[in-house]
Amino acid sequence: MILQVLSFGLFLKVLLLPGSNLAPVTEQNLEISTITTVPSNETKADFRFTGRYRLINSTNFDSFLSELGLGYFTRKLVCATQSEYIITYDRSDETHSLKTVTLLRESEIRFRDGVEFIENRIDGEKVRTVIKIDKNRWIQKQFVKPEVTIVREFDNNLINNTFTINDVVSIRVYEKVSDIDEESVQLDDEVEDY
Ligand SMILES: *[C@@H]1O[C@H](CO)[C@@H](O)[C@H](O)[C@H]1NC(C)=O
Ligand SMILES: *[C@@H]1O[C@H](CO)[C@@H](O)[C@H](O)[C@H]1NC(C)=O
Ligand SMILES: *[C@@H]1O[C@H](CO)[C@@H](O)[C@H](O)[C@H]1NC(C)=O
């Protein structure tokens, strides 16, 4: 309910902010920016995930959110909103951070490879989650019924995200828009959502 009210306010904001760089987008038909394929010379063992990425293509996300139990209005809003990932890595405790930034909300998950944590999900559920890193892929499982799997495949400057719940599969592709200097990033203390 709170999310819906909040969402409505932000929905108006989306409509009223034509100059925003987080322009509303439509599923299936996102405008794709030029994809530069810079060959990576990173080794697999030291794959560089960090950076700022922007959503460039999304398929079936509405159905995924519907299976999660999100209402119609919230789903339409989420699907029509541009989204960015900010991925950082803290060497000191080997913690990865994935921040999702949209006009609607900002959320973050922080994890260590293969170590279970509690995730505050977009639908309000708190779920046990684990992310295992396999070369250039983050394989995430949420231990709930129905089980949710999210595979994020990093390939050059793209992340190919596959969201699976029951027999519903949604693919969302993000493109890197800038690098992030690992050393300069300060993580804040709040950990929530995805
Ligand atoms: C590869 O390594 C060199 C030397 O460390 C570096 O200058 C360059 O930016 C790296 N990346 C690519 C894509 O060549
Ligand atoms: C987006 O993904 C769909 C389904 O995979 C594909 O048919 C479409 O060509 C993609 N669009 C762009 C702009 O990449
Ligand atoms: C993303 O992954 C899906 C499923 O493996 C694949 O069909 C699709 O072609 C991939 N898209 C990109 C841009 O790599």
TrEMBL record:
Cytosolic fatty-acid binding proteins domain mapped to chain residues: 51-68
Keyword Signal belongs to the record: yes
SUPFAM superfamilies: Lipocalins (SSF50814)
Alphabetical keyword list: Lipid-binding, Signal
CDD domains, per database record: FABP
GO molecular function: lipid binding
InterPro entries, per database record: Calycin, Fatty_acid-bd, ILBP
Endpoints of the signal sequence: 1-22
Family statement drawn from the similarity comment of this UniProt entry: Belongs to the calycin superfamily. Fatty-acid binding protein (FABP) family.
Protein name: Cytosolic fatty-acid binding proteins domain-containing protein
Organism: Blomia tropicalis
Taxonomic lineage from the root: Eukaryota, Metazoa, Ecdysozoa, Arthropoda, Chelicerata
